[in-house]
## 1
Amino acid sequence: VQLVESGGGSVQTGGSLRLSCAASGLTVSTYCMAWFRQAPGKEREGVAGIYSDDGSTTYGDSVRGRFTISRDNAKNTLDLQMNSLKTEDTAVYYCTTMSLWGQGTQVTVS
C-alpha cells in the first residue's frame, strides 16, 4: 500500500502546476484524503482535503480560490490543480490518507 506524488517542479510566479498522487493497494474514493505541504523551517500545514462520502472539499485560507483538489476514480489518483502560484507556495507537497503518507514532491515558485 503506497501513495506516490508526481507533478512537482519549478514555475514562475503566477504560473500553474498540477500534482497527482497515485494510490496502490487502496481506493482513493473510499478514503478521506488530503494534500499537505511543508516549507523549509516551517511546520507541515494542510492545503486541501476531500471527503470520501460526498466528495466535499475543504481548503486552507492561503490557497482557497487558487487550488482545486479532486479525485480521478478511473485512474485512482488524488490531484491538486494549483493556479496563480506565489513564492510562498514553495514547499514539499504530500498526499495522505492521514495514516499513510507519500514521499512528497517539491514545488518551487520564483
## 2
Amino acid sequence: VQLVESGGGSVLPGGSLRLSCRASGFDFSSTQMIWVRQAPGRQHELVATISGDSSSRWHIDSVKGRFASSRDNAKNSLYLQMNSLKLEDTAVYHCARFSSWPFGSWGQGTQVTVSS
C-alpha cells in the first residue's frame, strides 16, 4: 500500500488549496478513504471520509461548507478541496484507508500552513 499526498503550502486566511493523494497497492475504487490532519501539539483528527463510489461523504463540523472531498477512481486519486482556510486549519494532512483509523501508521503527509 502506498499513499502519496501533495498540494499543501502556505496561504493567507481565506485562501484555498487542493490536496491530492495518489494511491497504489490496493483496490482503490472499492475502498473507503479518509483525510486526517495533525496540528502542532495535537492528536490526529479525522477530517473527511468518502466511500468508494463517492456516494457517501462525511466532513467534520469545523470544515463543513469549506472543505470537500472527492475522488477519481480511474486515476486512483483522492482530493480535498479546501476553501476559506482558517488559522486553525494549519496541520499536516494525511490520506489513508478508513481501516487505518485511528491507529494507522501515517505517511509523510502534506503541510498546510495558514498564516497572515
## 3
Amino acid sequence: QVHFVESGGGLVQPGGSLRLSCVASGFTSSRFAMYWYRQSPGQERELVAMLQYTGAIENNAASVKGRFHISRDDPKNAVSLKMNNLQPEDSAVYYCSSPGWGQGQGTRVTVSS
C-alpha cells in the first residue's frame, strides 16, 4: 500500500523559509512524477510544482516561481519543497501526491507576523 507523509510545515514570518518533505512508502518516488499542491480555506486546490520522473521541473503557480524549488531525495525516497521569501498568501495546507497513487494528509504552513 502506498503512503505519502508530509512534514516541515509550521508558522513562519513573512520573508522566511521552510522546507517541506514528503516521504513515500510502498512506492519508489524516483520512478514517477511527484506533485506538490496547496489548499487554503475557501480556495480551490492549487498545483504548486511538479517533478517529472525524467527530472524535469515545472512550477505551475506563477506566484511561486523563483521562490519555491522542488527536488528529490532518492536515498530517503522523498521529495522536498524548499520555499523562500514566504508571504501570507502562501499560507495553506501543502500536500504531495503522484498521479494515480494518491496523496498524503498534508502539512500546514502559516505565514504571519
